[in-house]
Write a structure and sequence with these properties.
The structure is a single chain. The protein is an all-alpha fold. It contains ten helices and no strands. α1 crosses α6 and α5 packs antiparallel against α6.
Length: 255
């Protein structure tokens, strides 16, 4: 047989392992997400994300009492005139009855919420992709979402753990605990008396939120056909803006 015409064996593309992918999300997200188009492999990152969520929430629930959270939230509602002091006292009494169960329930609820949010974000990305005529598959989008959330959650969880052990609990603003956004910065310089709508909206101008949004845009472009990263970022920013406006309006009306 003519060696020139002998078919050559095609070597399979080597896939990165879980930790290689995780590091790649930090240092080379485009290449890392591009690999997920053919091989999403979402089980390991989903498990770690849920374990991280449960662990962080458990530490939070053991460090912070429900009485403290209830006191802060009900006082805010009383100060804004949404409820009376009598209604606030009733809410506090109700919380005391369920407080013993919250250390178990809070991590479970957090895990379920995270899981729903993960698949919902991927679903929104798929819906937007269909609207703009871009082709991609759902599971690679789930992989992009999972790794994006996990990469940022590792950093924010570490920062939160440090803060919760070195900062007095009574000094925390539980509506904005990380303080990594414009709303928190304005509070530091004495401009905390902002309208509820504006304060909530400015909380979205956040270092970690923008980083997460950028990763989602890069990832969506990487696993999609004929979608540039700049276009993905534009669409992601539009969805984020709508979400921020809806949340800010809801907060302004219902607190």
């Amino acid at each position: 047989m003519d060696p020139v015409n002998t078919p050559q064996a095609v070597e399979p593309v080597k896939q990165s392992g879980f930790f290689s992918r995780l590091m790649g999300v930090y240092f080379s997200p485009g290449e890392t997400f591009n690999e997920m188009a053919a091989a999403p492999n979402v089980l390991a990152p989903i498990i770690l994300l849920l374990v991280l969520t449960m662990g962080t929430t458990f530490v939070f629930s053991t460090k912070v009492s429900m009485d403290q959270l209830t006191e802060q939230r009900t006082q805010e509602m009383v100060d804004s005139g949404r409820i009376t002091q009598e209604q606030a006292d009733q809410q506090k009494e109700q919380m005391k009855n369920i407080a013993p169960y919250m250390k178990v329930l809070t991590p479970v609820i957090a895990v379920i919420t995270t899981l729903i949010m993960l698949f919902a974000i991927a679903g929104i990305m798929k819906l937007v992709s269909m609207m703009i005529g871009t082709e991609n598959n759902y599971m690679p989008l789930v992989a992009v979402t999972t790794y994006s959330l996990l990469a940022i959650s590792i950093i924010t969880s570490l920062i939160f753990m440090v803060l919760i052990f070195i900062k007095p609990i009574e000094d925390f603003d539980w509506n904005n605990p990380m303080g990594s956004n414009v709303a928190a910065l304005l509070s530091v310089i004495g401009m905390e008396k902002l309208p509820k709508f504006l304060k909530t909206f400015l909380s979205y101008i956040d270092v970690f939120f923008i980083w997460r949004l950028a990763l989602l845009a890069i990832g969506t472009a990487a696993v999609s056909k004929k979608l540039k990263t700049s276009s993905a970022m534009l669409w992601a920013s539009g969805v984020a803006l709508i979400m921020a406006l809806v949340h800010s309006t809801w907060s302004a009306i219902f607190g």
